[in-house]
Amino acid sequence: MATTIKVSEELRDRINRDAQQRGLTAASLIERLLDGHERRQRMEAFGRAFRGADAAYWDEFRSWDVTLDDGSPGD
Fold first, then answer.
1. Which stretches of the chain drop beneath a pLDDT of 50?
2. Where are the domains of the chain?
């Protein structure tokens, strides 16, 4: 299903130029750009959560890290 969105002529031309340079359709370019943007948002949220982890989390992390380490190199 296709639909039309209103964008400025300048933006339309930029999308079409970039899509052509990459060998993509305009829709494929927009989809890839949006996918990348959403992935960056998820990674930033993960980073914020990771940086905000409290001492209890790290204590449990260390316990599991030691428990799961069988000492075999290369595993």
1. none
2. 10-67
